[in-house]
Amino acid sequence: MDGIIHNNKKPTDALKIKQKYKKQSQLKEIWFRLKKNKTSVLGLIIILIIISLAIASGFIYDYDEDVINQNISERLQSPSLDHPFGTDELGRDILARIIYGSRTSLSIGFTTVVISLISGGILGAISGFYGGRIDNVIMRIMDIFLAIPGTLFAITIVAALGTSTINLMIALSISGVPRFARIVRSSVMTVKDVEFVEAARAIGANNLRIIIQHVIPNSLAPVIVQTTLQVATIILTIAGLSFLGLGVSAPQPEWGAMLSSARAYMREYSYMTLFPGLAIMITILALNLLGDGLRDALDPRLK
Amino acid sequence: MNTKSELILDIKNLKVEYRTDDGVVNAVNGLDLEIEKGQTHGLVGETGAGKTTTALSVLDLIQSPPGIIVDGKIKLEGKNIRGLKDKDMESIRGNDVSMIFQDPMTSLNPVMTIEDQIAEVIEYHESGGYKEAIEKTHEMLTMVGLPPRRGKEYPHQFSGGMKQRVVIAMALACRPKLLIADEPTTALDVTIQAQVLTLMKNLKNQYGTSMLMITHDLGIVAEICDKVSVIYAGHIIEHGDLVDIFDNTRHPYTEGLFNSLPNLQDRKAKLIPIKGLMPDPTDLPTGCPFHPRCDYAMDICTKKYPEKRYRNDQHFVECHLYDSDNIKRGGVIKRG
């Protein structure tokens, strides 16, 4: 009897596994392929660590006490157990400021990209799908924006509207829009002529449904890649602008601003520039690794 | 014989042009087509003859620009459907008239499960909501011979023949009155072709759907069609039922089509292809468009477009070889 039960059990298990495997969606398949690429998994892990640090920073450090409170008696200390990354010229713990700084960089980085992704995506989808005159008008406007260097554009807007996080985000979002519009447009244009779109029209779907249900999900791959890379670019731009004094205003911690103020002490207290610089570098590197891995995972030709 | 049963589709004098930078492509030139209720109508012709354009214009799906329906009437069950508003047209597509496309590999959305794709059609045209639509989808899947539990899978997990079954299920989900099949078996291998054709034939009979079968394969026509129209350069040049076309071939072009088929009885017989190519649709020949390729061409063929000559109530030919007398006897052309 035991043997029979045993025999009965086996095929059902096998069947379950088989069904489970069969039910995998494209998303799971992409994840499966991404997992094979070790460096991009590393990138993903680093980003997840940075994000969780940014979220948990409120529990680790007290903002008023550790991050912005000046403590002249402890100024310019080298790394020690008390202050693992040392302290700055005003006696503030550099580790605490870097961790809080990740909040600024990541939140501005991601919100900006989401804003430019949505607005650029809508514009690109419209112009790619309808083509003709609409396409021409939208894309020529995008070309005008594209002709202005992103950083320069941000400087102009911040100079005109004043230094604030919101203005910075507006400036960076606008300069990101044409990039996304172009990418979404080109991938929508390749997808919209595929037969299943015609088939969708033949079953009575209207344009809106076709765009949302059939075109956009099939043109996401290059957009996802661009998104990760764009977050990296934005974080760098914020750091650059803060370095020039046009980004986040003091005393709010920001990596670029920290680099800028540490510049004067670089010869004697090099750790002051080293750690914020490392933070920027690691974040950008992780995002780029992830972006590269995603590009490979999403490219069906490399299956 | 003249008690024609109701017409499901009635196309009169359809003219479709593609206006490109290189000139006007005359894809369909005054085409007449009548499909009776419950029948399967074959539309046979070479590549570029205007078969697909005709089908797409019924659903008003011609890419515009450059395509434009210049003239003609399209009636569905007696009601004019040409020039309807987008919204009204959308309620016809997939509901009253649905279409099966040539290549099942590309006519399914790769990022949607197949049951969602079939349910989508039902949701558009019926008010049952998603749950009911999915239930109906499972019924449809069983109908076309696929286990419903596979509905949660994606198109890339199916083979070509199974995908075409999914497409058929999609096309028939709302019980359309007319099914347009645009070379539904061209992309499939021969063993699957037979299966899919049988399936379509059975479902069509079960639902009483009329069908417009577009194909270049005369074997398929013999297999499932009731009536046949031969199309050349956007014109029906010969029309009749199977016996008319297969056994009483009249038009030299139709004859050429038959001669291009391998002969199973005499395997040493050489194929006799029709010489030349389809005429350039931007610059069609004067008179009968087939005359440059026709072995029987006469002087008048280059000058005047031939009129319809009827052999019986339904079988007609547009060719100068025939007058009302000799068309009955035949014998003008010789079969291979």
Protein described:
The complex is a heterodimer of chains A (303) and B (336). Chain A is built from 13 helices and no strands. With 303 residues, chain A is an all-alpha fold. Chain A has a domain of 207 residues: MetI-like (MetI-like fold, Orthogonal Bundle), CATH 1.10.3720.10. In chain A, helix 2 packs across helix 13, helix 3 packs across helix 13 and helix 12 packs antiparallel against helix 13. The longest helix of chain A has 37 residues. Chain A is elongated. Chain A starts with a helix and ends in a 5-residue tail after the last helix. The N terminus of chain A is likely disordered. Chain B has one domain: 3-Layer(aba) Sandwich (Rossmann fold). In chain B, the strands form 2 sheets. Chain B has an 8-stranded mixed β-sheet, sandwiched between helices. By secondary structure, chain B is an alpha/beta fold. The interface between A and B is medium-sized, with 22 and 36 residues.
| CATH architectural grouping of chain B | 3-Layer(aba) Sandwich
**Mean pLDDT of chain B, rounded to whole units?**
86
Largest sheet strand order of chain B: 6-7-8-3-9-10-12-11
CATH class placement of chain B = Alpha Beta
CATH architecture classification of the domain at 97-303 in chain A: Orthogonal Bundle
What is the count of β-strands of chain A?
0
> How much of the polypeptide of chain A forms β-strand, as a percent range?
under 5%
Q: What is the chain-wise order of helices and strands of chain A? A: HHHHHHHHHHHHH
The CATH superfamily of chain B bears the name: P-loop containing nucleotide triphosphate hydrolases
- Radius of gyration of chain B over all CA atoms, rounded: 21 Å
Profile the largest sheet of chain A: none
Contiguous uncertain segments of 5+ residues of chain B: none
How many domains in all of chain B? 1
Categorize the overall geometry of chain B: globular
Give the percentage of residues in beta strands of chain B.
Answer: 15-25%
GO molecular function (chain B): ATP binding
Family (chain B): Belongs to the ABC transporter superfamily.
Protein name (chain B): Nickel import system ATP-binding protein NikD
Subcellular location (chain B): Cell membrane
